[in-house]
């Protein structure tokens, strides 16, 4: 009896080992199939997502929708499609997507608290699109930066500065901070400050400045407000008495598209006119030192 049990024991062990190997092999084949299917789903899904994004972009471009709303919707749709793709890949791996969705939902509160800043940016983007303090193409000043709005995305606004820097400003900050929209009006009021020396004839200086303004054709002679009311074309008045100069403020209206060029050109013209006039002097800070000799 003992001899029989000793002979049968290896046979039983080998049988169990065979079953274990069969299970491992079957499991490996099943896992490999699921991974392969998930990989195929991912590759095809990525192509479909890109295709749908491209189609959606073309549809939006043909519509009359505001460009800012278009970029926001493109960003939102892309995120939704990526979430659907991830769930599809997870489902192809054999993981219960319902349980996964429930797990994500239960973790949503914690994730929301951790990403409260990003959620605020999304809410800020919605506020910007609803109330439109600015839109794509506007020239704005905000957060110590200024430039042209290129895109309004889900989380941030992209601004291109005059020196071609790309700035990403969070929508949460843009919806709660002061934003100066210089594109809202078709007119801009350009301003210059001209300093002359004490003792120079102010009336004569004003005439010289007026001649400079008259020589610039892009300055508007009959500007009107948005309500259609006439505005004074030029403003030339003494506004400050500094330690070494009498400051004359000069203001004039110009079309928004001409603002920067006119502003720079007038700087040169005003300097040249004051410098060329023998009756006027450009002041600069001076100090008088008295030396007293002790007898």
Automatic annotation (TrEMBL):
Transmembrane segments: 31-52, 72-95, 101-131
InterPro entries assigned: LSM_dom_sf (IPR010920), MscS_archaea/bacteria_type (IPR045275), MscS_beta-dom_sf (IPR023408), MscS_channel_2nd (IPR006685), MscS_channel_C_sf (IPR011066), MscS_channel_CS (IPR006686), MscS_channel_TM-2 (IPR011014)
Superkingdom field: Bacteria
GO function terms (MF aspect): mechanosensitive monoatomic ion channel activity
Annotated Pfam families: MS_channel_2nd
Localisation per UniProt entry: Cell membrane
Alphabetical UniProt keywords: Cell membrane, Membrane, Transmembrane, Transmembrane helix
Domain called Mechanosensitive ion channel MscS: residue spans: 119-184
Primary subcellular site in the record, as a coarse category: membrane
Gene Ontology CC entries for this record: plasma membrane
Membrane topology per record: Multi-pass membrane protein
Family: Belongs to the MscS (TC 1.A.23) family.
Descriptive protein name: Mechanosensitive ion channel
